[in-house]
Amino acid sequence: MNAAEQTAAAARQLDGGAEMAEDGGQERLVAIGVAACRAGVSERTLRYYEQLGLVTPAAHSPGGSRRYGEAEIERVQRIRELQELLGLNLEEIRALLERDDRRAVLKVAWESSDDPTVRRAILEEAIAANAGLRERLAVKRDRIDAVIIDLDERLERYRQLLSDCTAAASPPLPRTTGTTAPGTRRPAEPLRYVSGVSRQP
Questions:
Q1: CA–CA separation, 32 and 201 (whole Å)
Q2: Is residue 162 a part of any domain in this protein?
Q3: Is 130:99 a contact under the CB 8 Å cutoff?
Q4: 85-134, pLDDT tens digit by residue?
Q5: Could you tell me if residue 10 is inside a domain?
């Protein structure tokens, strides 16, 4: 049983041991076309994920067709989110999913035992696994931050160049001189008063 199958089994155990059956069981399985549509991927992509061991069908029909339950569909959706939101590659996603799978198994083991020694071992394994995963993701985050800083610097430089280009392309303002443009009437000179009689200067 691989990690994906262990997770599915653990999920069913937590749900009260519900097993998927197409003849009226507690969970309804769907064919690959329906599962792919609900997960937002193509059938080819779903088969590729299975080939890589990222997801495993919950069961097969008597004729050998793949059947998927909610746990498998949600797993595919998570893979897509990790690709699109975090930019993880499939190898990084595999490591993350393996941690998720193991955590689900440890959760079942934790709830199945009250032995302090067993629970201590479970916690130590969980801490080590999460610390290792956090370290890997922190390295990727630092790389992403470096890329963002570089993009910010480029944007600032491009905006400055755009500002310079805009200023260079703008027409110069007309110069103000003491002459009157052709066709423009000069304003009337103010009247001066000399001995009570107004006259033009």
A1: 102
A2: no
A3: yes
A4: 878 888 889 888 888 888 889 999 999 999 999 999 999 999 998 898 88
A5: yes
Q: Phi/psi of residue 102, each to 5°?
A: -65, -35
pLDDT tens digits for range 152-171:
999 999 999 999 898 887 77
Count the alpha carbons within 13 Å of 24 in the hemisphere toward its beta carbon.
0
Contact assessment for residue 58 and residue 87, using Cβ atoms and an 8 Å cutoff:
no
Residue pair 57/68 in contact (Cβ under 8 Å)? The answer is yes
- For 7, the domain range is 3-88
- The reported pTM is 0.56
Does some domain include residue 67? yes
- Into how many domains does the chain fold? 1
For residue 172, tell me if it sits in a domain: no
Give the span between the Cα atoms of 97 and 102, in whole angstroms: 8
Q: Which residues contact 24 (CB under 8 A, 6 or more apart)?
A: none
